[in-house]
Amino acid sequence: MAKRILLYAVLAVGAFVSVFPYLLVVLTAFKTQAQLSGTAPWLPGLPPTADNLAKMLAGDFPRYLLNTAGMTALLTAGQLVFTTFAAYAFARLRFRGRDVLFWLFVATMMVPSAVTMIPLFLIMRELELINTWYGLLAPYVLGTPYGIFLMRQFFKTLPAGLEEAARIDGAGPLTVLVRVMLPLCRPALGTLAIITVISSWNSFLWPLIITSSDDTKVITVAIATLKQGIGVDYNLMMAGSLIALVPMVAVFVFFQKHIVRSVVLSGLK
Question: How many domains is the chain built from?
Answer without folding.
Answer: 1
